[in-house]
Records
---
Amino acid sequence: MKLQGALSLLFLGSAAAFAPAARNSASPTALFNGADPSSFGQGESLQFGGKDTSTGGAGRLRDKLNDADVERRKIQEEADRRERAAEIRREEKMAKIAYMNEMPDDQPAGTVDEFMFKEGVQDQLDKLDRDLVGLVAVKKRVKEIAALLVLDKMRRKLGFETSVPSLHMSFTGAPGTGKTTVAVRMGQILAKMGYARRGHVVLATRDDLVGQYVGHTAPKTKEMIKKAMGGVLLVDEAYYLYNAANDRDYGQESIEILLNVMENNQDDLVVAVAGYKDRMDAFFSYIPGMMSRIGNHIDFPNYSADELVQISDVMSRDLEYDIEPAAYEVFKKYIEARMELPYFSNARTVRNAMDRARMNSAIRTFDRFAIEGENGGECTVADLKNIAPEDFQILLDDILNSDSDKRIFA
């Protein structure tokens, strides 16, 4: 009995302890039957009070799906276009193969002479023979290149596969051996054959290509390349572009631009590099990429004394002068003596000698008719065109009689 009473008291105490909480809370039934909502935090409702964005979200999703669909269509259309282009190329190739297989071997292709004369190539080769004395090996190489271009054009006319050969060139030799003249003729041949739009030659040196400060080299090099587009860019003494003693030299940047143009624009620009053979060989060893891009290496030997005399005859003909037969012997002695001295420059030395001979002839003629009054001061056309032995003898005497420390300037 005592135990039962104790349990009853414990139960009653627990119920009293929870009574206030029960009185202050609303039953679930009362909540859903319209009971006072203040019991849920002073009138706060369980209803959602934010903005409904479900419609906008669906719109954005729809736009994204539409964009993705458009992108997929573009990708598919591009793939279809490429596939169709490839199919067209395959059809053209198969048609060409069939055409070439059906073409008889005795199909007339025209004569080589017809192409040589029709395109004006033979005219340029004749000018090269007429204007450039000697250099048999050089002329032979130029004719070989011309033959390749002519035959390539004949093949193209019949439908054969063709590709632009590597026309970049290296000219090695001493000054005055005709490198610039050959470059000009090659540019004109390329233009006649349709391998160059203009065929002109732009001569450039380090000063034309390399700048003096950071950011200056690229614009200068690109400007020279722009001028030469459609023709030939002849870089004289190209080895000066590379300075092995200075890793920060700006010439390396110019070389890299030239290499890129030689690789990617060979169908519209021919680059020719020129200079002394030993120095050009060293330059190619430093820049192997330049060597590998050049397919035509032409070496220009020095002229002989007899060839230089012939060059003087060509120059006098172009300038409308007449050299007396006896004057050629004096001139040859001068050339032989001058070849033994430093800084000999082949045809350039001949040109300088001809300029001095013309000046000596002018002084002699002026003294005869203006000072001495010969023939009443009247001279003939022959007098104005004449170059006599004494006009060259003055040059020879300068070498033979001057002091040894001055002879190199003769």
Note: Strands lie at 169-173, 201-204, 232-236, 270-275, 296-300, 322-323, 386-387.
---
Amino acid sequence: MQFLSDSLARVKPSPSIAITTLAGELRAAGRDVIGLSAGEPDFDTPDNIKEAAIRAIQAGKTKYTAPDGIAELKQAVCDKFARDNGLDYTPAQVSVGTGGKQILYNALMATLNPGDEVVIPAPYWVSYPDMVRLAGGTPVCVESSLETGFKITADQLEAAITPSTKWFIFNSPSNPTGAGYHPEELKALTDVLLRHPHVWVMTDDMYEHLVFDDFTFSTPAQIEPKLYDRTLTCNGVSKAYAMTGWRIGYAAGPKPLIDAMRKIQSQSTSNPCTISQWAAVEALNGTQDYILPNTAVFRRRRDLVISMLSQIEGVACPVPDGAFYVYPSIAGLIGRTSAGGVAITDDEAFAKALLEEADVAVVHGAAYGLSPNFRISYAAADETLTEACRRIQVFCAALR
């Protein structure tokens, strides 16, 4: 009898986590590896949030809570959606999970049946397709391009929808590209969705507050209120509040869906860490004054990385609207050979050679569903980014 499940055979480990782990192992072995693969702010969690967690511990708030979050955090989520997005939810419409990933996973597990399709714009966060597969569904990936700013068009979305489509996953600003949909671009997509009432919308708004220049963030149910009753608006505290390890994500949507997600969570992890929940209450309700200064730092780092990568012949590096990633194209480098004798046949070969010969860890574009590219996370110190980009310049200059 087969021991491992068939479902497990449908998924693969996260490539970004694998690269980050490998970089750590190489550093431990004495290599001077610069890791630019982890999607996590290098800032410390703000003091007011840490102090709220300490107060919770001192007050003995260390017991089980309701499976999907304390009432105070659910209310804070409602207040956040009203304040930032003009969306009105009640606490009964809110689910809090162990990170944004669990929220997405719970929703997919609660709704997908074999044969159900989920439309996912590519490039995509590496976990979307595998979570769909694990839940029994079929990912339908729609490729964008460098020419479209790594955004899909309304016509592409229309063509991807079938009678079997259950969800459209929407992420803006995007991981891995940092591309953001302007309100008029998002309205074109929501107009398509209005014509297909069987399709639900799952948003991943994790990078909402990390936006640059003149970009204005918006989320689908905000742009098109008629989609409110079939939209799950997902977010979390990981990125904007530098709370990746605290593991708190949240979502709001129609109560029957939230109830189903609660059932999944009650029989899997149960409640998120109680202390982290109280910290998240402070994150959402407390001062937001550090978000703009942190965003300014990310914007400076973005400009630094783009300036240096754009000097490399054969590399095209579009300017992201938000998040803390760049997604350069290496189409002009395919077919060359590295100084170490590695044939650059695709972006995975490029990333492996870059790590082996230049000690810089990046994630290859195929992991995100669009090649030939690679992703850099610029959530690192300016000096680190400068040295990493210098090494990439030297590595590329030596290609023949």
Note: Residues 208 and 217 are 6 Å apart (CA to CA).
---
Amino acid sequence: MGCLDEGHLNVEVESVVSNGCVELGLEDETNTIAIEDAVKVLLLGLGEDINREGIRKTPHRVAKALHEGTRGYRQKVKDIVQGALFPEAGLDDRVGHAGGAGGLVLVRDLDHFSYCESCLLPFQVKCHVGYISSGQRVVGLSKLSRVTDVFAKRLQEPQRLADEICTALHQEIKPAGVAAIIQCSHIHFPNIESVLLDSKHQGWVKILVSSGSGVFENKSADVWDDFLNLLKFRGINREKIQLKVPSDQCWCPSLSFLSADASSKIEALNPASVTAVASILKSLGEDPLRKELAGTPGRFVKWLMNFRTCNMEMRLNSFHRNGMNSSNTNGKVDLNEKQICSELNLPFWSQCEHHLLPFHGVVHIGFLSSEEFNPIGKSLLQSIVHFYGFKLQVQERLTRQIAETISPLLGGDVIVVVEAGHTCMISRGIQKFGSSTATIAALGHFSSDSSVRAKFLQSIPSSTFSGGL
């Protein structure tokens, strides 16, 4: 099935703390304080004022989110499963189908998130897990979700996550076999240079992996046909699944990016920031020297430095002057002589200043234009969006800043709509998978005339933004 030896499995199954929510002990409180101190170092490295109202509580919020997002290190699979094994007559060691014994039990669409061990960014997980009963034993169905969550709530990579789920369930349930198919979606966060050069940057990297134990170890076995046939209507088939991801294949976008020529342009990292991330890993119960984590602090800091307060030079004053020169707004506006123009689906990427977690989405801009008006180009609007996106932000402020900046450039009558998906909505216990947030800022006639505002909002295509899986 996988790469887990017996010793490693025992460590995973016999973790430290029982399942469920636990109160912070003395050691946990110490680790939380250590994470908060490390986050302060990172914020200072970004050039931020750690006493600023918006981020004053950020170190505590980040520590709380990481503690929640890695609670799997402090949970026991045994405690979850052993109290939920039930006898079921007719299920013995034989494997059969109609009229036989040991039929397949499959639970689909278990949504989780995990932190990528290569870059510390959260990624979304949709897990389909099943087993074939034996020994007259079945397990409570909710426990399959609980067990998958234990291993998702650790620093992970997709193939190991699938292997660990199968191995743990096989040891505790002792079935004829366990199978898991996992769909993972990792945000592909660009740096500022690459996003300006690549207007078609893809926001997500997706992978589909599988693992099996017992009768599922043979990937050609008939039992896999049963499993996959029950997933076909979800668009999953054998051809799409990577039955075993090569150990030298990297799925994390940060690894792919650093292998490119652009990596040579990255400036030297702040040693204090790198040390701070290593301290966070240690406080979470990980070994920063583990082979898979050796480069993680550096990769996280390189990504975080995209959001330095001075990371992008833009002469907004000159934009205002040029915009006003091309504008033709004197006195009252005659709406009969103007039409609504728009630039839709301008992509942006940003970083939540409350939790240091990424959010991204699209910006829609509307404005009133006449024949005499010469609006600024889409490329300049996109640059303004990126300028305000690549900062520690909140979506409401981002929307307002874009509107206030482009207003004099577009004649004063503007509306900005921002649609975004926030990883903090899934990675700190809320788990609102697939949710998105929309914010509006309207100036000029878009602010005072509800019919004009409604006309623009109705012009935005449906399903313009997808937050992940």
Note: The radius of gyration is 26 Å.
---
Amino acid sequence: MENKSYLVQMNGNGVHGKTTVNGKSLNGSGVNGKGVHANGIHHVSVNGSLYPAKAKSRRQKWEVKPSEMAKNTLNPIRSIVDGMKLTPNPDKPMIALSIGDPTVFGNLPTDNAVLQAMKDAIDSQKFNGYAPSVGYLKSRKAVANFYSCPEAPLEAEDVILASGCSQAIDLAISVLCNPGDNILVPCPGFSLYKTLAVSMGIEVKLYNLLPEKSWEIDLQHMESLIDERTSCMIITNPSNPCGSVFNKEHLQKILKVASKHCVPILADEIYNDMVFQGCSPSLASLSSDVPVLSCGGLAKRWLVPGWRMGWILIHDRNEIFGSQIRQGLVKLTQRILGACSIVQGALDSILNNTPQSFYNHTLSFLKSNSEICFNELSTIPGLNPIMPSGAMYLMVGIHMDHFPDFKNDVDFTERLVTEQSVFCLPATAFEYPNYFRIVVTVPEVMMVEACGRIREFCQRHYRPLSHDSNDLDQ
């Protein structure tokens, strides 16, 4: 009996059989020693045996282990919070000031125009299928038009849509960095940067923000961290967790450092335009030569984080990124299709039909709550709140010398839950101990109540320093 077998080509376009007899291809094509053609064609024998011989099993027993990437993936917030003993006071209702989700309490709904845009997209039944991996052209064009300005013009080809700003950041880090590279990350800063980088074998170098200067970057420290393996610097403006907003002059100084060392910038601008007074220009609008990948999305400004719509804006007027970075981003989007097609279908209407009054109301509320929180906590001995200028957060320093009952900020915030049922996020989660972060999106009455409970807690545990009445040391 002739030993007939088939060459099965796995090219994603179907299965193509090619007959071979006695191991020889009728069309002259060969097979490698592993039964796989050099062009990805698998050689399968009709009698069920592999050709030329069945390979021995590499394992004698089951041993399935998680990948190195999985083992190296760690979210600092989750690891810290999950380890805390959070048992609220049963006599006081819980007030969570820890979650950066503006929808939690229902007091900050999105605008009706945003909801109507989604309803129209669903009713059209045009967006139920797969979208292109980078997003619909019309949706990308809408984003480009919305953010384009004379100083930093954008076209549809400069926009990549993603599943929320988090995926946009993931794509940006992935396209710029290789294992063994390093990135510069703000401290305190959003924990996701480190989570993503470390899982990919990328070193994270933390540059300091200065609380005494409203969380401006310590530019000298940041510059000292740059070496030949620095693949990008991440700039978060406005800031999570600080609520800080950089002015034009400070942004220009940041660009000067990046330009001097030829380091591209990943700009996390998810809180873009969420500024209490005036405005903060985008980094790209001030850049003459530094290429910028700006990451943003609908989550915060439009108050719909669950809709998972984010984007990367590619600013590369001098063609430093060139075609390779753009092509790399396209390839990365093809790994897993990102942004929801229905939200993409609504995007043009969301961006163009949301009334200015909606944005104004949101900012007015956040500014008012921030002022209430800052003013209340400023009068509490042992605490040092720093007034934010945007976003949704306020950072509070703890003069730990005055609170000997607690080991650190994690212990402090844990006991605050136990005694007062107020949960603030310890800033150790942001690599910045002896501070805690407050989210200012809660209803005003809850903010006032929470500040009162924090006051009661601090008064109970505060101890004056016997040798010095000043609170300069933390």
Note: The first strand starts at residue 4 and ends at 9.
